[in-house]
TrEMBL record, chains A, B:
Primary localization class, coarse: membrane
UniProtKB keywords: Membrane, Transmembrane, Transmembrane helix
Membrane-spanning intervals of the chain: 41-61, 116-139, 145-163, 170-189, 195-212, 232-252, 285-309, 321-339, 359-379, 384-403, 415-445
PANTHER family from the UniProt entry: SULFATE TRANSPORTER (PTHR11814)
UniProt name for this protein: Sodium-independent anion transporter
InterPro entries reported in the protein's UniProt record: SLC26A/SulP_dom, SLC26A/SulP_fam, STAS_dom, STAS_dom_sf
Upper classification of the organism: Bacteria, Pseudomonadati, Pseudomonadota, Alphaproteobacteria, Rhodobacterales
GO CC annotations on file: membrane
Localization (cell): Membrane
Domain STAS span(s) in chain numbering: 469-582
Amino acid sequence: MSSPLPTPRSKRQFSTDRLRRHVPILDWSRRYDRTTLTSDLVAAVIVTIMLIPQSLAYALLAGLPPEMGIYASILPLLAYAVFGTSRALAVGPVAVVSLMTAAAAGKIAAQGTPEYIAAAITLAFLSGVMLLAMGLFRLGFLANFLSHPVIAGFITASGILIATSQVKHILGIQAGGSNLIGMIGGIVAHLGDTQLTTLAIGAASLAFLFWVRRGLKPLLRSAGLPPRLADLLAKAGPVMAVALSILAVRAFGLADRGVAVVGDVPTGLPPLTLPSFAPSLWSDLFVSALLISVIGFVESVSVAQTLAAKRRQRIVPDQELVGLGASNIAAAFSGGYPVTGGFARSVVNFDAGAETPAAGAFTAVGLSLAALLLTPLLFFLPKAVLAATIIVAVLSLVDLSILRRTWTYNRVDFAAVAATILLTLLAGVEIGVSAGVALSILMFLYKTSRPHVAEVGLVPGTQHFRNIRRHRVETDPAVVTMRIDESLYFANAAFLQDLIYDRIVCDQPIRHVVLMCSAVNEIDMSALESLEAINTRLSELDIKLHLSEVKGPVMDRLKRSHFLVELSGEVFLSQYDAHTALTAQAQAAE
Amino acid sequence: MSSPLPTPRSKRQFSTDRLRRHVPILDWSRRYDRTTLTSDLVAAVIVTIMLIPQSLAYALLAGLPPEMGIYASILPLLAYAVFGTSRALAVGPVAVVSLMTAAAAGKIAAQGTPEYIAAAITLAFLSGVMLLAMGLFRLGFLANFLSHPVIAGFITASGILIATSQVKHILGIQAGGSNLIGMIGGIVAHLGDTQLTTLAIGAASLAFLFWVRRGLKPLLRSAGLPPRLADLLAKAGPVMAVALSILAVRAFGLADRGVAVVGDVPTGLPPLTLPSFAPSLWSDLFVSALLISVIGFVESVSVAQTLAAKRRQRIVPDQELVGLGASNIAAAFSGGYPVTGGFARSVVNFDAGAETPAAGAFTAVGLSLAALLLTPLLFFLPKAVLAATIIVAVLSLVDLSILRRTWTYNRVDFAAVAATILLTLLAGVEIGVSAGVALSILMFLYKTSRPHVAEVGLVPGTQHFRNIRRHRVETDPAVVTMRIDESLYFANAAFLQDLIYDRIVCDQPIRHVVLMCSAVNEIDMSALESLEAINTRLSELDIKLHLSEVKGPVMDRLKRSHFLVELSGEVFLSQYDAHTALTAQAQAAE
């Protein structure tokens, strides 16, 4: 491709393009019109209704005061609207990240202390800086090392953990426990303390929310409502539960009868807060912040990609990192805690017609109004109702079918999923997801360290070569051809040597060994040295080593080494050439 | 293969075979005769002469009393003779492992304290248990993750570190420092304290040893000695230096003039010692012991393999782990410290004609005699002479050409070597080698996460398909064929999706996408889900997805999923079939 020489004008053009790439709002805002505004406003109203109870509930899950959930749903959304690329992603507090925040901050201080809150704010800051750095250094690919089954297993196990952690609020008891067994033990030990009024409210909310999810939508549709409206009304279930329960608690004075309520929620816009800059806290939170960043990014980018694909749009993963990074930094400076793009909320935003990130900004305005006007009403909101909304939301994340699917398809993936689920449940979210990632990588390395190698022969009447164990093929006793089904690199260099030496020991008349390299995408320095050793060893035994079907980039690199000079045999373009030449040579020698 | 039904006799036979595999001495001792005995005895005498100064010197390097070097050269050799498979490997203290021992024990206590000695003994025990466990669980493949360049870089950097650490003994000064800069700083700071008599002895020894290595052999050969004898006499250089220096120190009373000498070395056979079983010490030494085990195993197995190959013998890596494990456990119970197979010593053993591991047992007898008879003579041995033998030995390990070779061949390998060398020199052996391994693995994963993908077309007049960017090929605007040069797995699943979506966006008339899978050796669950997503997305755009040249094992697995049912297109056996069918279809549609 040729491009004109840069003139002052095209340079300016270039830097404007670049600015637009890093600040996407400059791009989409130029085409913003009244139609788009209407779509975005409608979506924002619906998401706001959904987000108010969620933000309170997830703050409860994170062990933080309810207003921090609201604060985390204001400035972070504005920041994402400026820097994010997804048209439909709804950023804010989400269940899994809230659980991870609780786990990380819980290692620093006890829930309810100022140190705990400071840890959560600092976590948002660190996570924001990491996301931003990953975006600027284009490290988004790191998220690829979380395999789909590991993510699925982690989300499922987190869902189970989160649901279990909320049972105490439904029962109105005090119970601790940081893993599944501890939580269940705590619940069983305090079962006698169950607060019956709280249980009644909690159970009723659960039943109501499940019914809204399963039963309301069909009912509304059979009542003649259009499907989208029915769907959206069903999403308002949690807000209805919140409103009804507040009314009930006020009317019957249930707060005086022992029902735990949210209590005083400060009225007003988010305060300016500062993360801690204590190096010891940073080092204590480093790994947790990294895990929160990566998990948050993966969750967010997968929903953003799915939604973008439906409208044939694209998102830019590295710019998404910048967007989420900016959101988390905004959360840290405005009394919030780690946020990311939520799955359910984004789908609602998309279905409601959000066309640009401005929908998120309007949602932030909605939440600001809630912070200014609605907080006094929240005093009597029972914690049991928030717990019920969490349980109903996260149970939809639980999908154990991944175990069956991986078991059928690939035992290696199954092992990774099973380990992730078990360790997340029993040892906590951080150990669970780290072990899943480590196990996936180790098993991939193990697999590539013992590659599939087939001894091949010519399929009669063709120029094709196939595995001698699977097909009826022609071979020459003096020529052994091995097709190596893997790149050659340090982890399998020794394996290759062993394999060839073993093959040579057992058969005596061999004069030629051909390595068919059609699936060898790389030969690194270790493998090169192994090939050199094989070549020397075979020469001593008066056996020639040949290569065939070496790929262009691999050949380019081999030419830079001495290997081709020292090679006792030849490099054949095709395996058929090798076969023809060597068979003739072997027969002439007889 | 069919095998007869097991009878009581063949069962017994089987268990005897199995016992012989795990205790190789039962195998080779049956064929032991007088000729073999003579060869082994000659080799043992020569290795003993070489090992006496080495065992003292390496104990000095490890910061341990000299007798521990001798003890580490007795029982461990007997243990290896029973359990090892290499005919020529000479086990005992070696330079790199001694340095690693000093680094690990130095983290626990100061040199010269009983705690330091206990840490070294415990390190031998832990390392022995780990090696044994790796052998029994067949985890020898783990050593493959140390790439050749990383090992080469690590050995080179260790050689530089070791040589530098000995300079203080040559100068007769006290100087500390745990990394290269610290050591050089320490030497420069104390240069004024240089003990001139010590320096004279040290410099003379260095000059003598270098001359023996470079000049003596040619001299002896020109004097008419046969090459092997000349070579072996040259190997006795360190023993001559030791003997001469002891005589000089005694004759001129140099010990009273400030020359540091070895001093009292207890006379007698190795004492029974016990490793510590304190859990805190175990956890402190765990990582160090693991690194010592792996590095020791890699060093040992590579020399054993090289030597075995010269006589067309084989060693069994997993059994070698058992042999080295037994040696290290023996070291822990007999006052020794971590041992492994040494490179230089094993080559001497091999050249001297060692035919079975019995040569090692005879060497142990030689060292026992030294422990009983020679220790009083060692009182006046100057430490500077031991330091000189170490420096001369390790400088032969230093080979910076690996930097140039990797730079030419493969920048990824170069980065791993450079990082290993720099970090070993500046941050220590443990961080250096760990970083090298981690970097190699990460870069391999990164590379496979962005595989080479070529869009291919038909080479006219053939059935071959080549990269459209490198060759003049035939293509159909309605058919896009992508050849993927890598297994598809979690780390590149997202990459594949992005790649195909990008390709689809820019060209409109596409009706068929073919993925040519000739180099795809594996499709894991994550990649399967990506393929399903691609299939769905393309279907929405009315584009069919096809596969071609799918390998047998990959196809077997795909058949266990729903993917083939949902696939919008077909699976073609060869790319040519795909081309013929789809081109015809596309033309018919026009």
